[in-house]
Amino acid sequence: MRRTTRRRLTHAALYLLLALALLGAWWAVDWPAVASSFFRVDVIRAVWLDFLLVGAVNTVKYTAIAFGGGLVLGVLLALMKMSPVGLYRWLATIYIEFFRGLPALIVMLAFAFGVPIATGWSPPGGTVGAGLLGLVLVAGAYMAETLRAGIQAVPKGQAEAARSLGMSPAWTMTTVVMPQAIRIVIPPLTNEFVLLIKDTALLFVVGLMVDQRELTTMAQAGMSSGPGAGTATTLTLAALFYLAITLPLTRLVGWLEVRQARSR
Fold first, then answer.
1. CA 145, CA 136: separation in Å to the nearest integer?
2. Which tens digits make up the pLDDT trace of 136-187?
3. I need a surface site. Which of 61, 198, 201, 259 has the fewest CB within 10 A?
4. What ranges in the chain are assigned the alpha helix state H?
5. Do 63 and 197 contact (CB within 8 A), yes or no?
């Protein structure tokens, strides 16, 4: 058998296998039950505006706070890890390894309930502030490694040329190295932003007031009370809002990666 014929037969078999799997899944699902539980139009009409004005707005707001705080912390940790002072490098390494090794949920619960018990101090903003502080600390650890890789990717000749012109090390880092490093790490930082959007769903474990709810908490509450009680339509609505926020960002990441690859 010729190689081309064998390849075509293999592809046909794979397509047939996929079609059979899809047909099996289609027959296995109770579609009337799915329609009456996940896609109730009357429920969507009743709650979509609250999801938009409260859930989506809070989700974006929490993400922006966690990302901004994590970015500032990440820059500081990245600079500490590349410091000529050994103690700074050790402290940054311990911090990064510690918080990258813990689930974000554990950190958020620890700051919401453990730290107040142990120290008597509560983070500002109540439990939602404590949850956001946990997200900032974890995000900062991941961003630090991303930023460090970006800084090290800038050719050393750039910094050496700036220093030969009489610029101080701090001014060289601020005006020459860091702008180029940020441009290099924009795609992974955008990815981190997308991950943080989804991580804000973890805030439900610390307990949120009605006006503090993000999309996941609203979906969970909507399944047990209100017009969506007893159905999963609010879950579908929350998923659609998440996709509306994250899909443009993931497409942006892909476009930025292609653009960077062409510029090299």
1. 15
2. 999 999 999 999 999 998 888 888 888 888 888 888 888 888 888 888 888 8
3. 259
4. 3-28, 31-38, 41-50, 57-81, 86-100, 104-109, 115-119, 126-153, 156-164, 169-172, 178-199, 215-222, 233-263
5. yes
DSSP label at residue 120: S
Phi-psi region of 120 (alpha: psi -120 to 50; beta: other; left: phi over 0): left
HSE-CB for 57 with a 13 A CA cutoff:
9
Tokens at 219, concatenated: 């979906």
Report the b/e string of 10-33 with b at 16+ CB within 10 A: eeeeeeeeeeeeeeeeeeeeeeee
**CA distances, 164 to each of 153, 159, 172, 173, 226 (Å):** 20, 9, 10, 14, 68
Which tens digit of pLDDT belongs to each residue from 105-146? 999 999 989 888 888 888 888 889 999 999 999 999 999 999
Residues 6+ apart with CB under 8 A from 145: 78, 96, 100
Could you tell me the pTM of the whole model? 0.85
Burial grade of 244 (CB within 10 A; 0-12, 13-18, 19 or more):
exposed
> What's the CA gap between 232 and 37, in Å, rounded?
5
Q: What angle do CA 121, 126, 127 make, to 5 degrees?
A: 100
